[in-house]
Request: fold
Amino acid sequence: MSGTDGDTVLATHSGWDDFDLKLMKVLGTFLGLIFIVSTYLHHWAPHVLQVPQTPVPDNTALDMLYMEVLTLVMAGLCGIHCYRKFGPYATMLFFVGSFIFTGTMENIMIMAGRFELIPFKSYYFNKGGFTLYFDVPVSVCLGWFVFAYSSVYIAGIIFPKTGPIARAAIASFICMDIDLWSDPVMTHPANMYWTWLQDRTATTHVFSIPLYNFIGWFGIIFFFEVLWLYTQDWHIAMGKKKATIRFFIWLFALMAMYMVMVVGMELLIRATLPHVNYTIGGI
Reply:
């Protein structure tokens, strides 16, 4: 399966081998321990990470369970589709890679803003499920996987002759467009899934959401999907162990690039664009 032909399935992708099973156990154990510690800190020791305690509507145990089950089902369907199209190894890389990449970047932005490691406040999550990946609901990370996989697959269907960079860019535009209308709904006082902390007079907003958020949506999907599309054949050329190590090295390198891009873009926006809210009908 090459980076330019996402629908080709090679025989080498057709089933599980010992490395796939070991990798799944290692990654599953790693993420599971993080979930346990993060969930404990968030709900029973919020002072450790200074988690804001904001009263929000519809955040009962049943609401949290519903959100987690819903996103788990959607992620499961995408995972099954990815497995059938690309095999277990590529599916694990996409799921865990996107989960760690997007979830970690969310956490970095939240914590950096909270502890004043960047020159502006960012945001925090009010609800979204019971289990946490550090300070981000697991349901949000699952949602990132659903967005990332479904968008790049749809982009490949609509534009089958595109290369990895163009396909990732198309997928990123799809996701950014979805967030353009969903973010104002999710942050509305009637829902309050997360809270933006930027003052309206401090930066440019679109539909009451900081402009850099939409640039960030594009970048976070684009960086990861370019990596995944380009690296699907690494395990054939160098073996799965070396390919996996190389994949995660690139993953963390892209995290650093993304962080610099988003923070730099927000500072540039504050310095050059009018600090107004571009909106329609008061949204």
Q: What stands out?
A: The chain has one domain: 11-278. The radius of gyration is 19 Å. Strands lie at 123-125, 132-133, 136-137, 194-196, 205-206, 209-210, 277-278.
